[in-house]
């Protein structure tokens, strides 16, 4: 489709400590024993988008990610790995590779996205509308252990977080308003001029910006050049493009910005059912709706020069879409990919609805339940129980061990009598006899001493300070 693709793969994200480390950057965190980055690369490959720049923060992370891509995708994708400094932000990362971008349209996608929406569909919608940006929107995932989980009772109150407030035109093709993050807790202010131009705007709080965007390269380049303080695509670049799409209309109608605001309150309690907001009675405009504005112009005049279109592609309800941007999300996505979203895993499941590698060994009276995964070369002793969990490669697990709702990475040694629930155990960890972990994260290489019990703790080796 002659789109160039930029995959923003991050580095060692602070929100994911102790799961990430110098050895395991975010892009290589395992989802069902595959690096999370593999999910988006294979999704792009399936849409025949094979010309990629993968942007990684930090030198060590870039070397590791580049080495893995070379081994895994040789002869399949044309990938250039670009290293940028840590913490440059998503807009900063794009700015750093802008000189490599030559295609008329660019697809920008987060390397932590696990989803089954074809990027080619977003690219096609972008071309069809001749938009400057087209953003993929998905249903907000509900976070936390499933109702069947051991801690299901307490988690019934878990609701989707408020991700964004999004204003759409009545056809739900044009993005007219977006507020993200901290902004959404305040009263929402809409410009009257936008409402006057569109006639009606549907306000949605049940959609997530999936961090997959198609951009017209010339416009993206211009914004990155002119707005050198912009740090984030989602919080700076996208809202700016949305705000400026009617600017020529605004300046020509002679109203000052001070008179432009109309307050709309978004009910914080009811996240889903936010109805269409209209101008107060007596102010309903007579101009054509937003999308018709582009079809023709009153008095046969040509369209205003500064007008551009910001579009959305809304994934259908049954599609899976989540981002690995927190420890909770890491656990949720691992559970989903071997559970209800198992089609994403790339593995075939057994008659017992689980994945047990042929080389794995199970002791007597050991059970591995449905929606579980057991990696290559791993061994479990007698009378073990594994439920709704992923166990990595070459793990040595003793007898009478319980693993529930957890992710165990590679080369982990778990001694007899341990109990692990709702936890993440990173590679090369040793759990000595009778360790009990509940809702914990254990960083790579850590040793948990015999008989220890931890709840809600993050255990990690101290990083050696640079002297």
UniProtKB/TrEMBL annotation:
Subcellular location: Cytoplasm, Cytosol
One GO MF term: translation initiation factor activity
CDD domains registered for this protein in UniProt: eIF-2B_gamma_N (cd04198), LbH_eIF2B_gamma_C (cd04652)
Pfam families: LbH_EIF2B, NTP_transferase
Entry keyword set: Cytoplasm, Initiation factor, Protein biosynthesis
Biological process terms in GO annotation: cytoplasmic translational initiation
GO CC annotation, single: cytosol
SUPFAM superfamilies: Nucleotide-diphospho-sugar transferases
Keyword Cytoplasm found: yes
Ranges where the EIF2B subunit epsilon/gamma LbH domain occurs: 357-449
Chief location: cytoplasm
Domain Nucleotidyl transferase: 5-149
Family: Belongs to the eIF-2B gamma/epsilon subunits family.
Complex formation: Component of the translation initiation factor 2B (eIF2B) complex which is a heterodecamer of two sets of five different subunits: alpha, beta, gamma, delta and epsilon. Subunits alpha, beta and delta comprise a regulatory subcomplex and subunits epsilon and gamma comprise a catalytic subcomplex. Within the complex, the hexameric regulatory complex resides at the center, with the two heterodimeric catalytic subcomplexes bound on opposite sides.
Name of the featured protein: Translation initiation factor eIF2B subunit gamma
Source organism (scientific name): Nelumbo nucifera
Source taxonomy: Eukaryota, Viridiplantae, Streptophyta, Embryophyta, Tracheophyta
